[in-house]
UniProtKB/TrEMBL annotation:
Cited NCBIfam families: mevDPdecarb
Molecular function in Gene Ontology: diphosphomevalonate decarboxylase activity
Protein name: diphosphomevalonate decarboxylase
One Pfam short name: MDD_C
Coiled-coil stretches: none
InterPro entries named in the record: GHMP_kinase_C_sf, Mev_decarb, Mev_diP_decarb, MVD-like_N, Mvd1_C, Ribosomal_Su5_D2-typ_SF, Ribsml_uS5_D2-typ_fold_subgr
Family label: Belongs to the diphosphomevalonate decarboxylase family.
Broad enzyme group: lyase
EC number: 4.1.1.33
Keywords on record: ATP-binding, Lipid biosynthesis, Lipid metabolism, Lyase, Nucleotide-binding
Amino acid sequence: DQNGQTAIAHTNIAFIKYWGKADLTLNLPTTSSLSLTLNEYYTKTRVEEADEDSLLINDLPQDGKRIHQFLDVLRAEMGDFPPLRVISENKVPLSAGLASSASSFAALTAAVAKFNHWDLSLEELSRLSRRGSGSATRSFFAGFAIWEKGDKDENSYAHALKTPDLPIALVVCKVSGMVKKVSSSDGMRRAQTSPDYQAWVDESAKQLDEMKAALAAADIKKVGEIAEANALAMHNLNLTAEDRRFTYLNQETVKVLEQVKALRKQGFIAYATMDAGPNVKIITKKDQAPAIKEHLAKRFRKIQFDIATAGPGISYE
Ligand code: DP6
């Protein structure tokens, strides 16, 4: 409309993780990453011209330091624009390892670009959003996306990955709604001090190639195997950091991981991935997701379970 612009971005879950920075200012990653955009979790963001930059999330005023810095990056990159009131509706459990920064910065980038009538491709929007949050680069695209790490500002952005129609689903286990104690940025910095870090980077490149092949073959079991190995190795970096070891996982996470293994023994396709929090996302086939959810719900009374499926790319209102 006349006074503002609204954009909607869905969150994404990485199957090959982004976990380390090669350049802190440009937010260039040490590895390329691959994700699935999800249908069930999204951020809807409206920007309006105002007297000063401000931020409201789910009706609550926020200290928008990170947003303000990002808006200034956009001003420096794209040319000045007026101060903006940013009004965000977040349908992602905040800071609990269901990357809300991905959908937030993707929606904000898209809304600001449209508000200013910048004529940009999804890849160009992805590139800009990287400066707000790395995982945001992958939230512009429906289904699977790859963030190519690149080696400079110009070539580090995501694109859609075409795959055959895949009946893939995630069983999302909300192990704890507690706010994470280590930010992703700090977590990455620490993980990069692990003696295993370079080996993880090298292995990640191989896993990305294997993952692309598994997706092309619509082999969900293989996709799950690779994703779980990549995620567990990422969490191992946190546990082996020289400056200083930590973990996002807790006792409940470990118990769920043990059940994921038990489900496999029963013949289910079930593989786990975790981000900067204790929640477990179980990769499976759509027709197995309800039974997996039921199996777990019986054993973990306090955990909430959702089933998530592939979601759309960026949209506007
Ligand atoms: C574990 O995108 O939150 O979810 O670039 O510092 O904002 P910043 O990091 P962020 O990191 C997400 C890390 C992850 C893995 C992933 O999504 O690839």
